[in-house]
């Protein structure tokens, strides 16, 4: 019946209607019935670490997509089913008589395995599958293939590979569907799923328990509480709206609005150089904050690229100054592709040290769980300079924004509250946690980012953590960010700290980066004592307190430098034999 296609369009990484090659391919089948679908994947719902802010951004984006479909065709919506794709899709193929399944290509390790299985299930059901690229400038697999089959580990490699794909440019964007171009879904009665589709447990999922234990809990009805395949509310998934404090809004309209306002400022686009944008700016921030929109696909990365290129081209013709790759905006988008290419080549092991051929092994005070399981024995001979309890405490204080270093704490509190921090802010806190302070494994830091970022993207998060910890991509471990001098350079008045660490709002700028140096009389005058560890338990003083620094930074920096040098001299990688068989660290 391909003359009468019944098309299931599976939205995953593309919560948009504009510039979607996959959506275009689906619509050009000329469907008699068209069903845009979102499957509630338990991997995302229960197993990954997703904080309230990212949930909110996702649901807002889905809600808007659903409304956009409705606007183009009042009989349409985003049809959300609450069940894993592997189990629900075969049932839907049958119930709705699907002839074609269409989706955007996803090269994340988990997604690849899932899609491989879906492909087989579709084949069994006689459903034709169409997959199109659209999530990156260049197909990560193609990037890898043009890089000699190897992970893309530098911008030079990415640029060279890209030259061999499209002369260094991604494909031009495709049109957005307009009114009349979105066919109907089945009549609602035919969409309805009967009791065969009721799944599992008759209680509401407990998000925390779900992702800690990895239990596969399911919703009572795949169609949602109103039986209308609606987009869930925060309440339905057990999140309090007051916990989702991010000011950054989801949805395709918001993404296009932000892009358009950036593009309108030709000076900004033309001169944009990442290292010159301030991590301490707020309202407005100094970069685009389009990363969460690229993550959820509410913005097409190719549209971003071409809109910027058109401005750069115009300025070149007008002989106006134009910044260049890698510091300009196209350069930023190529960094994103670089990490996608690296992940596509390495696969599952990209997200860990264990088994990862590109990552350098470092004897962190706190290793990832994988390595501990592999190699820690009672008489572990690794050269710990502090015991791991102390390092665990540092890690917790870092995560909670109470290290006693106001620049670090302000950033970590911004991250928790808003779900986004500037790239150089991420540099500061990641360097501090790993090779420039705590000497804690980058994997522990990446987990915290995974939970708190609204733009969390496995390839970019993992890749950047490796970069900052000097375990891959970047090797100049002797270049370290000071938690005092670096922030001061950007924001001598300390306004960023005053905003996110309000206890210190009245401190003189002389002490705002090092409040522990302020005389007690001044601390009292400014209404905040520097004492305790910020946990609220050790302070005996009445009134506001801010913690003392958790260590002497200069001493820690030296220890880190010496240890990094040693790790580089040893030169082991995550996939080396000693790591894989657990003999690393034995005498
Ligand atoms: P802009 O400066 O406006 O750049 C435009 C776009 O380019 C961004 O939206 C982003 O898609 C891309 N981009 C810019 N810099 C990078 C980079 N270094 N790596 C990859 N892509 C880049 N970015 C994520 O998208 N998801 C993550 O989970 C993530 N985790 C990070 C973790 C650490 C430790 C560090 C140091 C960086 C991380 N980044 C991550 C990269 C970068 O910090 C963000 O992409 C950027 O700050 C987003 O803000 P923006 O959209 O205003 O960026």
TrEMBL record:
Cofactor: FAD
Keywords: FAD, Flavoprotein
Segments forming a coiled coil: none
InterPro entries recorded: Crypto/Photolyase_FAD-like_sf (IPR036134), Crypto/Photolyase_N_sf (IPR036155), Cryptochr/Photolyase_FAD-bd (IPR005101), Cryptochrome/DNA_photolyase_1 (IPR002081), DNA_photolyase_N (IPR006050), Rossmann-like_a/b/a_fold (IPR014729)
A GO CC term attached to the entry: cytoplasm
Record flagged with keyword Flavoprotein: yes
Binding annotation for FAD: 287-291
Note accompanying the cofactor annotation: Binds 1 FAD per subunit.
Keyword Flavoprotein in record: yes
Domain Photolyase/cryptochrome alpha/beta: 5-137
GO molecular function: deoxyribodipyrimidine photo-lyase activity; DNA binding; FAD binding
GO biological process per UniProt: circadian regulation of gene expression; entrainment of circadian clock by photoperiod
PANTHER family, A to Z: CRYPTOCHROME (PTHR11455), CRYPTOCHROME CIRCADIAN CLOCK 5 ISOFORM X1 (PTHR11455:SF9)
Family membership noted in the UniProt record: Belongs to the DNA photolyase class-1 family.
Protein name as annotated: Photolyase/cryptochrome alpha/beta domain-containing protein
Organism: Penicillium angulare
């Amino acid at each position: 019946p391909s003359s009468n296609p019944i098309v299931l369009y599976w939205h995953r990484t593309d919560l948009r209607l504009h510039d979607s090659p996959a959506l275009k391919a689906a619509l050009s089948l000329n469907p008699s019935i068209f069903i845009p679908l979102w499957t509630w994947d338990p991997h995302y719902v229960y197993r990954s670490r997703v904080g309230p802010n990212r949930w909110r951004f996702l649901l807002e984006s889905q809600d808007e997509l659903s409304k956009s479909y409705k606007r183009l065709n009042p009989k349409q919506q985003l049809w959300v089913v609450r069940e894993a794709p592997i189990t629900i899709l075969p049932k839907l193929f049958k119930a709705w008589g699907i002839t074609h399944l269409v989706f955007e290509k996803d090269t994340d390790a988990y997604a690849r395995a899932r899609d491989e299985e879906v492909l087989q299930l579709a084949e069994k059901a006689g459903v034709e599958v169409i997959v199109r690229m659209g999530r990156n400038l260049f197909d990560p697999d193609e990037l890898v293939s043009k890089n000699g089959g190897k992970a893309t580990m530098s911008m030079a490699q990415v640029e060279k590979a890209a030259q061999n794909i499209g002369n260094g440019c991604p494909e031009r964007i495709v049109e957005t569907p307009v009114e009349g171009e979105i066919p109907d879904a089945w009549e609602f009665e035919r969409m309805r799923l009967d009791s065969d589709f009721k799944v599992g447990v008759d209680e509401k999922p407990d998000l925390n328990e779900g992702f800690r234990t990895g239990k596969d809990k399911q919703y009572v009805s795949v169609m949602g509480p109103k039986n209308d395949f609606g987009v869930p509310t925060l309440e339905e998934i057990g999140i309090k709206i007051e916990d989702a404090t991010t000011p950054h809004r989801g949805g395709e309209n918001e993404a296009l609005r932000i892009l358009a306002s950036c593009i309108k400022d030709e000076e900004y686009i033309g001169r944009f150089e990442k290292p010159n944008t301030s991590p301490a700016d707020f309202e407005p921030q100094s970069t685009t904050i389009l990363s969460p929109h690229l993550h959820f696909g509410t913005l097409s990365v190719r549209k971003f690229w071409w809109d910027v290129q058109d401005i750069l081209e115009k300025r070149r013709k007008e002989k106006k100054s134009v910044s260049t790759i890698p510091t300009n905006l196209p350069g930023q988008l190529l960094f994103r592709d670089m990490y996608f290419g690296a992940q596509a080549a390495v696969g599952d092991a990209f997200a860990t040290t264990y088994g990862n051929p590109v990552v350098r092994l470092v004897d962190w005070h706190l290793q990832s769980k994988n390595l501990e399981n592999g190699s820690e024995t009672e008489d572990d001979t690794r050269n710990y300079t502090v015991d791991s309890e102390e390092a665990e405490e540092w890690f917790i204080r870092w995560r909670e924004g109470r290290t006693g270093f106001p620049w670090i704490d302000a950033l970590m509190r911004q991250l928790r509250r808003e779900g986004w921090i500037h790239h150089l802010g991420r540099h500061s806190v990641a360097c501090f946690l790993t090779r420039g302070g705590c000497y804690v494994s980058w994997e522990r830091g990446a987990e915290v980012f995974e939970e708190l970022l609204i733009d969390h993207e496995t390839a970019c998060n993992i890749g950047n953590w490796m970069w900052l910890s000097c375990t891959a991509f970047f090797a100049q471990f002797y270049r370290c960010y000071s938690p005092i001098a670096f922030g001061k350079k950007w924001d001598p008045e300390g306004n960023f700290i005053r905003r996110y660490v309000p206890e210190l709002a009245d401190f003189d700028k002389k002490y705002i980066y090092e409040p522990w140096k302020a005389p007690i009389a001044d601390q009292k005058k400014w209404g905040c004592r520097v004492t305790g560890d910020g946990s609220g338990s050790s302070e005996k003083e009445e009134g506001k307190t801010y913690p003392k620094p958790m260590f002497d930074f200069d001493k820690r920096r030296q220890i880190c430098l010496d240890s990094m040098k040693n790790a580089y001299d040893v030169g082991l990688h995550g996939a080396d034999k000693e790591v894989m068989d657990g003999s690393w660290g034995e005498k």
